[in-house]
Design a protein that fits this description.
- The chain is built from six helices and two strands.
- The protein is mainly alpha-helical.
- It has one domain: Outer membrane efflux proteins (OEP) (Up-down Bundle).
- The chain has a two-stranded antiparallel ribbon with strand order 1-2.
- The protein starts with 15 loop residues before the first strand and ends in a 13-residue tail after the last helix.
Length: 215
């Protein structure tokens, strides 16, 4: 029995670039709605699609409320001193779309932080339990030698075998949990979503491909 059947990436930087969250379908959805609602206000095409980015890194030690989204989205339509009355409703809807987008990002940050925390926990448990299993393995080897030499009873040897097997199972369980949490972390950051924003690419600010990003 072994606790290393499934590989878990090692040496991972737990602080993830926040802009990777834009690969999540829910974040992209609300971002698209934001663009759409701004368009209804009649913003000029050149400023219709601002370069939205999420600055900084997301760490499980950060407070969600204290984490910054980076610079605010700059849309002149939100800051005009005088608006035509017929545009007031569209402007309100566009502002709500921005609020919804920010809410989706906060939810994404929370998901990432939970997955980060759980993954780190099970990684540490795997390391400790693997060391314990190795120690029990050495004890079992010594016990078998003592049994052959008549220095240990069969009952004591069987107890050692059970202890070693239990230690291996615990290590394997923690390892498998780490694998699952790693998968949860990839889902939380939208790995594999494969989105491509042509307008961002034209502006030189394409959403990074997280499958190629260094972890």
């Amino acid at each position: 029995m072994t606790s290393q059947k499934l590989a878990v990436p090692t040496g991972i930087s737990i602080g993830l670039p926040a802009d990777l969250l834009r690969n999540r379908p829910d974040v992209r959805y609300y971002e698209a709605i934001l663009h759409q609602q701004v368009a209804t206000v009649g913003v000029d095409e050149a400023s219709l699609y601002p370069s939205i980015s999420l600055n900084g890194t997301v760490s499980n030690t950060d407070s969600v409320n204290g984490w910054s989204f980076g610079p605010s989205i700059s849309l002149s339509i939100f800051n005009r001193g005088a608006l035509h009355a017929q545009h007031d409703v569209q402007v309100s809807v566009a502002k709500q779309a921005e609020i919804d987008w920010r809410s989706s990002v906060r939810g994404a940050v929370e998901d990432v932080q939970v997955a980060q925390s759980n993954f780190t926990l099970y990684q540490e448990q795997t390391e400790l339990l693997s060391k314990a299993a190795a120690s029990y393995g050495k004890a079992l080897a010594l016990g078998r030698n003592n049994y052959r030499n008549g220095a240990m009873t069969l009952l004591d040897l069987l107890d050692t075998v059970r202890s070693e097997a239990s230690a291996q199972i615990n290590a394997a369980s923690a390892h498998n949990s780490a694998v699952k949490e790693w998968a949860s972390l990839q889902i939380a950051i939208g790995a594999g979503a494969g989105f491509s924003d042509k307008k961002d690419e034209e502006k030189g600010g394409a959403t990074p491909n997280i499958l190629e990003a260094k972890q």
